[in-house]
Amino acid sequence: MSFTLHGIPVSRGIAIGRAYLIAPAALDVDHYLIEPAQIESEVERFRAAQQRVHEELDALRADLAADAPSEMGAFINVHSMILNDAMLVQETIDLIRTRRYNVEWALTEQLERLSRHFDDIEDEYLRERKADIEQVVERVLKALAGASGALADGVHGACDEMIVVAHDIAPADMMQFKTQTFQGFVTDLGGRTSHTAIVARSLGIPAAVGVQHASALIRQDDLIIVDGDHGIVIVDPAPIVLEEYSYRQSEKALEQRKLQRLKFSPTQTLCGTRIELCANIELPEDARAALDAGATGVGLFRTEFLFMNHKDRMPEEEEQFEAYRRAVELMNGLPVTIRTIDVGADKPLDSMSGGDGYETAPNPALGLRAIRWSLSEPQMFLTQLRAILRASAFGSVKILVPMLAHAQEIDQTLDLIREAKRQLDDAGIAYNPNVQVGAMIEIPAAAIALPLFLKRLDFLSIGTNDLIQYTLAIDRADNSVAHLYDPLHPAVLHLIAFTLREAKRAGVPVSVCGEMAGDPALTRLLLGMGLTEFSMHPSQLLEVKQEVLRSHLKTLEKPVADVLASFEPEEVQAALKRVAQA
Ligand code: PEP
Ligand code: MG
Fold first, then answer.
1. What CATH code is assigned to 3-242?
2. How far apart are CA 354 and CA 362, in angstroms?
3. Is 54 a catalytic residue?
4. Which of 145, 330, 332, 574 is most open to solvent, judged by the fewest CB atoms within 10 Å of its CB?
5. Higher pLDDT, 314 or 2
6. Which of 305, 341, 513, 536 to mutate to test the pocket of ligand 1 (most atoms within 8 A of CB)?
7. What torsion, rounded to 10 degrees, do the Cα atoms 66, 72, 73, 77 define?
8. Which has more confidence, 137 or 404?
């Protein structure tokens, strides 16, 4: 039966494919397709892990104290039986053979299927046996991780007809999808600028988040359409609907091909003002996509993604340096703005869950996040600063600091940068001594107290995602308040316009690197406010460029002034219409 679900559009375009449901537990393992030639060795890997768990269970049984409760032995026996059960073993092997899933994926997929059967069972005792199966699967997964040293990485082949459907996907898990070619994403939770949505957008594939109950209503392998422009998900579409969307999909592909022609033209307005379009990246390799789209630099390198998926430790200085250098070298002389780690809120680190109380922070978005965390971990921060400074010897590097609000935070940060330079001098290691340091303007206090920043820093970058979150007190990742997350709220627009105007007056370069910079519907408004440097995901760059090429700054002046002069929604909307038509 066909039905439609509505959510929040976060990444444009249309995807048509089969639903691939991901259970939260399944996200802890890698998902990739193996080559046909690897099937037998993958099955062998499974068998070896199965054997290892058998040995573990035998050892447990042998070690049972004579006076141990009899249930203990029975419990181990049940686990041994499950470990041999064809429903688990044979079906998992079938998934490896027929679908070419890696063994971890096959195993968690089969666990999901079995769990659904168990959920339907009336008998409570039997229903609870589901937990035993989960425990056995977990043991096998651990054995697999131990056997191979780590869960296998790398992706083989493509699964290009699948659309991921999940309750939620953490940003760190989203990174796993960077190397895979899923066609779309649908999640129950999330907001437009949640980091999950941002990564989806960076992949340039259609996505809808906040599609409530999607993961419960959509079944594995259902045919679905994701309309990423409108946040609509159509499940089991009627043939005529499918035909219409296939047509729209091919039209969009055509538009995209046309946009490619803009790649090599200079970015300037009709009146000849040069506009810089830079890229936001999460991993060094993303620099290729940035260059491909014609970016004139990296305006935001979100380094925290390098720190995620490091289960037990932070990356060493050398490892960080290599990653930064790689991005710098790939950009081949173009500027690379490296932001110091911005963890916390919806981007926790595995290694943050130590004794620092982070997990129990009452409100992580207002807690020990970004620069606050870095300043509380000076050794870690110095390590990152040294790594960035070292990369500055290989190209044009700028340092960007997130979430600053207080004068003492700026001063402490600048002191630590001086200290990192001293340490490199002592060790005789090269770096650019004149590396520029800038601040993200993403807390309203920073925008309002701008002179503090203008006096101390070389450049500014407005992070509209957080600026909106903190100005409107709307958690950007919370879909229950997503309808109130409004980039066009007069308070937000005034803070942006004020920051642009004051920075310009002080001669301090300023850019916008939040998601507003990549929204072509807002390009003219930002241009009219005086913005000349945008930074966005490469997948959005050409559409924004098209808007720039069609704009004339002089004609934008009056309607943009009207937008800022009004506080009434209808008047703002009317003025915005005039901006679009100017
Ligand atoms: C922002 O807040 O606008 C920004 C660019 O940073 P992030 O999205 O990583 O918080
Ligand atoms: Mg931010």
1. 1.10.274.10
2. 16
3. no
4. 332
5. 2
6. 513
7. -160
8. 404
Domain segments of the chain as ranges: 3-242, 267-581
Ligand 1 atom 4: the closest Cα is on which residue? 463
Residues 494-506 have pLDDT tens digits of 999 999 999 999 9
Q: Is 302 annotated as a binding residue?
A: yes
Which atom, in ligand 1's list, is nearest to the CA of 461?
5
Q: Which residues contact 180 (CB under 8 A, 6 or more apart)?
A: 31, 32, 155, 158, 159
Query: Domain 267-581 is classified in which CATH homologous superfamily?
Result: Phosphoenolpyruvate-binding domains (3.20.20.60)
Please report the pLDDT score of residue 151 as a whole number: 29
Judge whether 476 is annotated as a binding position: yes
CA 151-155-160 angle, to 5 degrees, is 130
What pLDDT is stored for residue 158 in this prediction? 33
Mean pLDDT computed over every residue of the chain: 89
pLDDT for res 410: 98
Q: Which of 195, 278, 489, 537 is catalytic?
A: 195
> Does the annotation place 161 within a ligand binding site?
no
Active site residue 310: no
Q: What is the pLDDT of residues 455-494, one digit of tens each?
A: 999 999 999 999 999 999 999 988 889 899 999 999 999 9
Which among 420, 506, 501 is positioned nearest to 456, based on CA atoms?
A: 506
How far is ligand 2, taken at its centre, from the CA of residue 444, in Å? 12
Ligand 1 surroundings by CB, under 6 angstroms = 198, 300, 302, 342, 442, 463-466, 513-514
Q: How far is the CA of 171 from the centre of ligand 1 (A)?
A: 13
Helix (H, G, I), strand (E, B) or coil at 225: strand
